[in-house]
Amino acid sequence: MENKSFALAYIQEIEAEYTSTRKCLERIPETVYNFKPHPKSMEMGYLTLLVAEIPLWVAVMVEEGEIDFVTFKHMDVREREAVVRHYDENIERAKAALQNATEDDLAKEFRLKNKGELLYAQPMIAAVGSTINHWVHHRGQLTVYMRLNDIAVPSIYGPSADDKGFS
């Protein structure tokens, strides 16, 4: 399969995960952002923003070829509507980056750094797929936090226990 076919498949995967992820983000009130299920766990507000922001990683990866934890610009928002808007913008930017990417862009190496130090490198195609998986993983984590806070969990791949008529 040529690289551009992978890009189109990844766009379809992002679109398939978009709605259920957005439904999660829409339901999380700012009042629970400080919640942590365990002292070693991340706060719900951080996790919420992470889920909204990971699609931006895809765009930055494809457009710039690397992410450095120190220089990557995170949006610092605490309002639900702003998080959802940020998420929508990140989704569109990720899809556009993949749509506009050439085969050469997608054949390049992606580098993850911390303070300029290389943590790892891998082919862009693999990195994008791993990032989408990472996004879905954190959405799953977010649904557990939602359940622990009595926030209705939306249907993701089928009915949830919160869907009407399902027990």
Automatic annotation (TrEMBL):
Q: Which residues form a coiled coil?
A: none
InterPro entries (alphabetical): DinB, DinB/YfiT-like
Binding-site residues, a divalent metal cation: H134, H138
- Which GO molecular-function terms appear in the entry? metal ion binding
Segments crossing the lipid bilayer: none
Protein family membership? Belongs to the DinB family.
Name it.
DinB family protein
